[in-house]
Amino acid sequence: MRYAVLGGGKRLRALLVLAAQQAVAAGRADEQPAWQEAALRSACAIELIHAYSLVHDDMPCMDNDVLRRGKPTVHVQFGQATALLAGDAMQALAFELLTPQPGDAGATPHGAAIAPVVQARLCALLARAAGPAGMAGGQAIDLAHVGKPMDQRQLQHMHELKTGALLQASVLMGAHCVPEAPAQALQALQRYGQALGLAFQVVDDVLDATADSSVLGKTAGKDAADNKPTYVSLLGVQAAQALARQLHAQAEAALDEAGLPDVAALRALAAWVVQRSH
């Protein structure tokens, strides 16, 4: 589990949680330590879900990959049975982190108890993003379309589930750490997360086709080798890059509409997503 979670990675999802919480809490006179505690736990939880999905995704029954984050994948390092169990355990641990019990280590630092209604909301957001209407459902669609054609609408739907749902949930979980967040802000942040999630996947497809394994930390060109539909295979590199820029503009526009006093961190993360090289 430590090998899978702590051995590198962008931490984008965790950063989105923290940035969204900070943006919604900015300027609130009633800010509470529990809000930061909830955001930190949410950031760790979503990283655990993301890491577990990579462990399972890399296994021979799925994508059968041997390199992740610049080192051997978990099943290569520890065997398939241990990799499967590690992924299962990380998924369970994510929800354990979101529901601290009285007396747990770090459950109430500085008296900062997380309200049960906040715990429930965070668990619901994460479960829906990771389950059949989110990441797992998107992966199922992906596996079912190896070697089969997809139009752009179908490809977008798949990636909105497989990749976008968890990125969007990162933003919404951060926002929902703050009680009574303005409805206008929540709706705008949902649009921001949706555009950013899709932009991330478009850029990922471009990098898979144009970068090498030493830069990516995973096997480059594997989508093409596995005959999987991607934005590059459908649109070409230049058109895919243009689409990423268009989605970045949509994310920026959503932040403008959020009505929040400080969205600098969210803007910086959106810019990084479309400009990244790995």
UniProtKB/TrEMBL annotation:
<dbReference type="InterPro" id="IPR000092">
    <property type="entry name" value="Polyprenyl_synt"/>
</dbReference>
<dbReference type="Pfam" id="PF00348">
    <property type="entry name" value="polyprenyl_synt"/>
</dbReference>
<dbReference type="InterPro" id="IPR033749">
    <property type="entry name" value="Polyprenyl_synt_CS"/>
</dbReference>
<dbReference type="InterPro" id="IPR008949">
    <property type="entry name" value="Isoprenoid_synthase_dom_sf"/>
</dbReference>
<keyword id="KW-0808">Transferase</keyword>
<keyword id="KW-0414">Isoprene biosynthesis</keyword>
<keyword id="KW-0732">Signal</keyword>
<keyword id="KW-0479">Metal-binding</keyword>
<comment type="similarity">
    <text>Belongs to the FPP/GGPP synthase family.</text>
</comment>
<dbReference type="GO" id="GO:0005737">
    <property type="term" value="C:cytoplasm"/>
</dbReference>
<dbReference type="GO" id="GO:0016114">
    <property type="term" value="P:terpenoid biosynthetic process"/>
</dbReference>
<keyword id="KW-0460">Magnesium</keyword>
<protein>
    <submittedName>
        <fullName>Polyprenyl synthetase</fullName>
    </submittedName>
</protein>
<feature type="signal peptide">
    <location>
        <begin position="1"/>
        <end position="25"/>
    </location>
</feature>
<dbReference type="InterPro" id="IPR053378">
    <property type="entry name" value="Prenyl_diphosphate_synthase"/>
</dbReference>
<dbReference type="GO" id="GO:0004659">
    <property type="term" value="F:prenyltransferase activity"/>
</dbReference>
<dbReference type="GO" id="GO:0046872">
    <property type="term" value="F:metal ion binding"/>
</dbReference>
